[in-house]
Structures are given as structure tokens and as C-alpha cells.
Fold this sequence. Notes:
The structure is a homodimer of 216-residue chains. In chain A, 42% of the residues lie in helices and 15% in strands. Chain A contains eight helices and five strands, in the order H-H-E-H-H-E-H-H-H-E-H-E-E. The first copy, chain A, has a four-stranded antiparallel beta sheet. In chain A, helix 2 crosses helix 7 (133-157) and helix 5 (99-108) runs antiparallel to helix 6. The first copy, chain A, starts with 10 loop residues before the first helix and ends with a strand.
Amino acid sequence: xxxxxxxxxxxxxxxxxxxxVRHFDRSCKIDRSxxxxxxxxxxxxxxxxxxxxxxxxxxxxxxGKEKLRKIFMPFNHPQLDTCSAMVVLFGDTDAFxxxxxxxxxxxxxxxxxxxxLDTILGTFLPIYEKADRTLLTADAMxxxxxxAMQFMxxxxxxxxxxxxxxxxxxxxxALAMGLDPVRYVPVMAIAIGKPDESQKELVSTRYDVxxxxxxx
Amino acid sequence: xxxxxxxxxxxxxxxxxxxxVRHFDRSCKIDRSxxxxxxxxxxxxxxxxxxxxxxxxxxxxxxGKEKLRKIFMPFNHPQLDTCSAMVVLFGDTDAFxxxxxxxxxxxxxxxxxxxxLDTILGTFLPIYEKADRTLLTADAMxxxxxxAMQFMxxxxxxxxxxxxxxxxxxxxxALAMGLDPVRYVPVMAIAIGKPDESQKELVSTRYDVxxxxxxx
Lengths: 216, 216
């Protein structure tokens, strides 16, 4: 089972009081085992047909950060310079290639019936096998974003703060991280660390819910 | 302040024990005020440059569901037939058009300095004004997905269950919901309701975290 350590296990506080932090305490290092646990828990997120088309690259070394610095907009250098780790999240457009084995395994674990397995492999797998890059990219970005939100909430439950970042040269991100730029599409970067309490952080305004909601 | 009513306010339970539910209790109706509150809380999610490029259409009438039925894959009809509401989530590719007013308002509320306002309007707004549709769509899908994850968690904290759904004819979704199909891109649908406890639901398997995580 999943083991965890939440200093703040109050859902309403974790979710409703979250806001982005852009200045972190430079002295805070987060152990890789903790970062791994946060990713593990974040990936309990749902995904399209359970494709799990997310891929996390956690950058916590000076060398790794230097590579990011070259492609980050200067506006986002403060987060990069002060965070414990910058987590670069990609969508994996090849995720469907593991699909048959995944569902076969779920059948063997008796989680699904043979009928369900046949439906999945006969109906959904062909959709992905025939899909164009636009669809694969869109699905992967959605999957990765769902996991990203859980990553940010999980981090907060552990007493950390985060800042999701889109301001970088997306065309260079995969190569900078040593990944195949055809297979992996960058979705966002997330700075994680302890907040620098001496800095005042912006709590940004949201539109009135009536502006973004309709009933049918 | 945000008012809420969480039956289950334990973060670890809400997030780590969530799984999709595909069979709901048909007798459960969720009041529109409650659905509105869930959307309101879900949209505390972060978004690219605070664009908030999400748009929720909550379908809770027979007429609305009938429109969805015509474009949903049959595999997803059970959720549509039994859920209290099907929430169709769109990305709003025109969100940047409200951007100047939003940040101007935050400046007037003294949430940001004049310098920050000038940076935002001088650096980020032009990126969106010049952006092609691919970028606007991608950003909107990420924003909407972040809010979607919070919607599912918030629903669970209130004692409801959800199922995110991608199996529908995306080319017809905006028109079916009476929206401009150029402006609004469908991201996912989310069924919400009370679980039908007589049904055994699949808890799908996740890959080992080592398969989706690298350090740099």
C-alpha cells in the first residue's frame, strides 16, 4: 500500500488554500525518496483509458538546473534558482504501446473480465493505433495535467509549495532533458520547495464562477 | 470566503482512495447550487498566466443528456444514464481576451505592482495575442485539466464519485452544447453522482513509479 506522510491532511486546507509560490528557501533540499513518493501518489490520477501518458523528469542538480535556465524565460529564473527541485512534466505520445500488456495484466489479476479485455483491446487500442499526432498529444497533455494537479496538492499536504510554469522554450525542452522530442511533449514545469516566508506572494484573482459555468 | 461542506475532509483518503465509478445511483439528484460550489472550488486551480481558460457545461436535464447520448460512445452510456450530472469541460481559446481587464483589476486591488502589471501586459499578453491556435488549444486543455482534477477531488470530499470520460465525438461536442466550436475545445466529460453500491467497480492498475520518473 501507499505509505505517506502528510503534515497537513485536511483536504479543504490543502486544496482551497493552495496558491503558487515563486520564492523558495534555498536551504531546503527534498530527498529523492520523498519526490518519488509524491510522483507515485500523483499518478493515482485517472487517465484516458488508463494510458497513464505522463512522464516526470525531476531536476534537482545544479547541472540539470543549468540546462533549464537556458530555455526558461527570465521571469521564471527566481523559481528555478531557489526551488528544491524543478519537475518537468511531459506527455508520452507512445504510452499506447504498453497498453496491451497493461490491460492483459489487469485481466490476469482478475480485475477485469475477458469480455471487458476484448472490448478494451478491440475498441480502444485501435483508436490509439490509428490516431494522429494531434490526438495523441492532446490526450497525453490531459493525462499529465491531471497528475500535475495531484502533484501540487500532494506536495502541499507534505508542507511544500509549488509553482506550475509554462514560460520556457517548449521546442527545446525534451532534448534539454535528454528525451526523444518526437515521443515526449512538454506539458509544464513545477517548482517545488519550502516557501521563503520573507517574500509576499501573489494570490491571484479568479473569475466569478458564473462566468465559466452554464447548465444544460 | 469560500463556504463548503466536506463530509470527507481527509486529504489522503480523498486523493489516494479515489477511483472512477461507472454506475451511479439513479435516484440521486445534486442541487445546482452544490454543483456550482464544486466548480467554484475546482477553479481555485492554477492556470497558465492565470488565464483560467476553462469553461464548464453541467448537463443535468434529460434533454441535455439526450444530446450527449448521440455523440457518446456506447461504452459510456451507462455513466450518462445513471449519473446525477455530466459535466462537459471545455478549453476557452479566447480566454486571453479578458486578460488585460483581469490583471488591471488585480493591480487596482493592489495585489500586484505597476511594474508587475507592465511585465504581464507587455510580455505575456502579446504571446497570446500572437499565438497560433495550436498553442491556445494546448494551454486551454492544460488549464481545464487542472480544474478537472480538482473538480473530481472536491466531488469526492463531498461524498460523490466521478468518472472522467474522453469517449465521445469531440468534433460535435461544442455545437451539441450550444457553444462556438472554434472558441471552445472539448477537454473531457466528467460524470458525477452517488455510487451504485451494488456494482463492483474496477480499480485500475498503475505503472511502477520508476517507469514514469527520471532524475536529472
